[in-house]
Amino acid sequence: MGRRSDAGDRILAAGTKLFGQRAYAAIGVAEIAAEAEVPKGSFYYFFPSKQALAMAVVNRHWEHQRAEWLRILTAPDSLADRLRALFVSTAEVQRQAVNGTGAVVGCLFGNLALEVSAQDDPLRIRLQEIFEEQIDIVEDAIRGAIEAEEVTVATPRESAKSIVAQIEGMVLFAKLFNDPGQLDRLWQDSMRLLGVDEEAAAA
Amino acid sequence: MGRRSDAGDRILAAGTKLFGQRAYAAIGVAEIAAEAEVPKGSFYYFFPSKQALAMAVVNRHWEHQRAEWLRILTAPDSLADRLRALFVSTAEVQRQAVNGTGAVVGCLFGNLALEVSAQDDPLRIRLQEIFEEQIDIVEDAIRGAIEAEEVTVATPRESAKSIVAQIEGMVLFAKLFNDPGQLDRLWQDSMRLLGVDEEAAAA
Q: What are the residue boundaries of the HTH tetR-type domain, all occurrences included (chains A, B) (predicted)?
């Protein structure tokens, strides 16, 4: 049992690594098994298909990221400070990736979203759900700030979506230019998208 | 000669279609040749490699899009009106794609950027150049608006980059949700990123 679940973990870790590096479509089960150092047959003991592994990888990644977003965005600080902490954390993840592998990994969800969107499959639906959840978390933080009279935002959900879109766009630049510094403007942009004077917020 | 250049055009069109639909890494020369209805050997008469074709596809796409962006963003209108026209045009391209193929195609450059970023190849460098050019065009429009005293923007290049990032993020949503309506907020977001009161700009 110990060895078996160890192999399952290794397959999950191999999928996370490979899907973060190259196109999902270009990675086969044989390569994932080799990276995990398990026989190809073992792969199918744990996952019925590459898609099932991708779903598990996505779910585990979101489980971790969701906990981090909730921890940061429900903290007892101002919305401006909470968003700043979120972007510091986002940039830190990319800086660690550069230090570890030499490359900005970008956003696993965004990478997969652009690739699987042409297909109407369960992975695409799951990615839609995850982005909706990201927007939910930011929306809740904005609504809290409205109640606390920190900001006046007419359409909290639309503003939350604009902020998540800005994160995805800037992460794309960070990945293309292999430069986590591309994320440094996210806080200022988010303040502007919320209609907050960033100089007042920074003070 | 007539037949030969016709075949070259067909290969270019096949590459444009296939790279817009699926992962670059998952598409082989044989499939491109089949889509173009030319023998596989003919492919290599026109393009030394799949990468060479991708470069030609990207360059032709940017040639067209660049002309469109310049036409719209150098028009003798206010910056607010020019940006509105740009986003109407962007959404129209995606709506035509939905009507034609049933799917939002997204941004060819963004799709490829997320896939090739892990590799240090000429395609990645070319995509960096194209995004820099997009930012240049928007920056020039902003600088013109500053001179015309339409807006006050402290860092025109950074604001231009924020707008291009917002386009990429919203196009990702349009693709993932297969819904060009996701682009409808781009104008309002851009006004906010420029620090312009959108109600005043809309009036």
A: 5-65
